[in-house]
Amino acid sequence: MLAIAMKVLMLSTSSFLLIACLLPSDQPTSGRAGALGLQRSKHQSVSKQDLQKVESDCSKGELNRVALEIPLIAYPPAARQKNVRGRVAIKVFINESGDVYHAVVMNGPALLRKAALRSALGAKFKPFIEDNTARKCAGILNYTFNTPD
After folding, report:
1. pLDDT at 28
2. Where do the domains of the chain lie?
3. 63 with 137: CB under 8 angstroms?
4. How many Cα atoms sit within 13 Å of 49 on the Cβ side?
5. If 0-12 CB within 10 Å is exposed, 13-18 middle and 19+ buried, where does residue 129 land?
6. What is the C-alpha separation between 144 and 108, in angstroms, rounded?
7. pLDDT value of residue 11
8. In CATH, which of 3.40.30.10, 3.40.50.720, 3.30.2420.10, 1.10.10.60 is domain 2-26+33-145?
9. 79 in Cβ contact with 109 (< 8 Å)
10. CA 126, CA 21: separation in Å to the nearest integer?
11. Taking a C-beta distance cutoff of 8 angstroms, is the pair 124, 99 a contact?
């Protein structure tokens, strides 16, 4: 089965290019349930204390406009069949290289969460620099799903 996918590329600090294409949507996913939904780490488990420290030291708010790249996101077939649409918020934790190393679903329709989480884990950012040192930061990526025509 094919699904509509979107990719957002940052053209400048205030303009984006949205690319839509068809992708196979039957890709396996994995994750574990978190307090507010799904969460995933790219590598080994991340301690709750580390995540809380990063969030308290460097929380940047909404990050959609500062992302260098947000990967393609396939519209989940089950969500399409049920005409599910809505917004999914993902809290991302970014390392010193600008890669997302942990992501947690904050809210949004259940059938859309895994697709947004998978995309958030692949997002890329310019490293956050403070006092000439790259640092870990946290923030939110928002995904809006509208049913494809």
Report:
1. 33
2. 2-26+33-145
3. no
4. 0
5. exposed
6. 9
7. 37
8. 3.30.2420.10
9. yes
10. 26
11. yes
* Beta-strand runs (E) in 15-127: 16-24, 32-33, 38-41, 59-62, 67-74, 86-94, 100-107, 124-125
Q: Could you tell me which residues come within 8 angstroms of residue 108 by beta carbon, excluding any fewer than 6 positions away?
A: 37, 86, 87, 88, 89, 116, 143
Question: Using alpha carbons only, what angle is made at residue 75 by residues 149 and 105, rounded to the nearest 5 degrees?
Answer: 135
pLDDT mean by block of 10 residues, the chain; 149 residues: 39 37 34 50 79 93 95 91 95 96 96 96 96 96 86
How many other β-carbons are positioned within 10 Å of the β-carbon of residue 135?
A: 15
- Give dist(CA 89, CA 112) in Å, integer: 10
Task: For residues 142 and 96, give the distance between their C-alpha atoms in angstroms, rounded to a whole number.
Answer: 22
How far, in Å, CA of 93 to CA of 141, rounded?
10
